[in-house]
């Protein structure tokens, strides 16, 4: 890009997208995420950075995703996606933060400094793709028709080979969170034929607000069913989040109690089914499962002791899980919030394809099913619709309803809380965020509190998007988990600069 073109870019930034706030905005786990009215200049500048990043990557495509995921509609965000579908390289997060926060007058010099720093060849042609969710503060609503035709086609092909039996039924209720995922399902549901009968709720009509009292994050954190969904006992419900990258399942029993099937449950279901297919086709491949500290302790025990599958624990954030999953031939990763997928190495795909052509009859059948299962998988990024079809296929193949799925293991009761603090950077952690290293003394206090509970476990971590500290606690009863979480929240408030009202213990 010639200097004259850059000068036009900087002038346009000053005139059309000026920096109007002195609020410091940091690129975190989910990119930039804050109130939408603070982001206009940030989004424009991330367009500049995406062009630079593309040129550093020899002209390969960089993605810009404008979304605040599960946050409510007044919020928005922007994040960059690297060419292979991974989150932005961690070393560039500081660069993004620097570019977002400089004054308009310093934008030109800072950009030139970054170009030299990363050694970008500005003569190369850049490629940038942009995607957005359905918020009013987003400009474009993107649907990738061909991609979902591939996913749905693979789903229908594999389901036509699987008889429907046992406790499994083809009816699935879906909470669309008034976002993009539910609307997309509404478009493609007719093409599913008899393979899956979707009953859709919260599609954005009748004044429904994005993620408000609905969606995967609401269901997971509040442990309550979303508003706007009709329920029948034992009917499985899939709840998406607003931008369609997370999914959890749940059902109500005959006493109207809700039972959550979160990312841990999805991961164990998929890992178990893939293990079954690998065994049937005779493929000697290393399958592993990647979790974060938020994974329920009971799920980790089930995976390692019952499924005999190795587990890797990493920091929160899909980029960390994705990287660790690449170390396996087949890597299954899900955060407890329902964000995840399955990765297959090139070697694994080659071996499975060879078995599908040259193996014994039953081995070929299993390998062919697994190849179609791979075709149904979005390996580059969290995709709630792809994950939905993976779950439905695994349940159908096993003849399982939600009760059988739930019976695999019993979750330890847990509670998540958050504490508003002056500066989230006051909290530092290690050991995949399971141990707090600062402020001094906080980890010791957490361990003292945990020792008072049977099956107790707790950790704290700073949010990647706002000045809050997230608290997680487990114990043998819900009452104990609630109390432990509140006690840890009080310790955070007292020792890490809490703001507002001090957390209170449950009655």
From TrEMBL:
Cofactor: Mg(2+)
One GO MF term: metal ion binding
Manner of cofactor binding, per the entry note: Binds 1 Mg(2+) ion per subunit.
InterPro entries per UniProt: A-D-PHexomutase_a/b/a-I, A-D-PHexomutase_a/b/a-I/II/III, A-D-PHexomutase_C, A-D-PHexomutase_C_sf, AMG1_II, AMG1_III, PAGM
Catalytic residues (UniProt): 69
Gene3D superfamilies with a match to the protein in the record: Alpha-D-Glucose-1,6-Bisphosphate, subunit A, domain 3 (3.40.120.10), Alpha-D-phosphohexomutase, C-terminal domain (3.30.310.50)
Positions of substrate binding: 335-337, 461-465, 470
Catalytic activity: N-acetyl-alpha-D-glucosamine 1-phosphate = N-acetyl-D-glucosamine 6-phosphate
Organism for this UniProt entry: Papilio machaon
Record-listed E.C. numbers: 5.4.2.3
Residue ranges the record marks as coiled coil: none
UniProt keyword terms in alphabetical order: Acetylation, Carbohydrate metabolism, Isomerase, Magnesium, Metal-binding, Phosphoprotein
Positions that bind Mg(2+): 69, 241, 243, 245
Protein's name according to its UniProt entry: Phosphoacetylglucosamine mutase
GO biological process, one term: carbohydrate metabolic process
Biological role: Catalyzes the conversion of GlcNAc-6-P into GlcNAc-1-P during the synthesis of uridine diphosphate/UDP-GlcNAc, a sugar nucleotide critical to multiple glycosylation pathways including protein N- and O-glycosylation.
Stated family: Belongs to the phosphohexose mutase family.
Enzyme class, spelled out: isomerase
Pathway: Nucleotide-sugar biosynthesis; UDP-N-acetyl-alpha-D-glucosamine biosynthesis; N-acetyl-alpha-D-glucosamine 1-phosphate from alpha-D-glucosamine 6-phosphate (route I): step 2/2
Sequence ranges assigned to domain Alpha-D-phosphohexomutase alpha/beta/alpha in this UniProt record: 61-101
Domain Alpha-D-phosphohexomutase C-terminal: 453-490
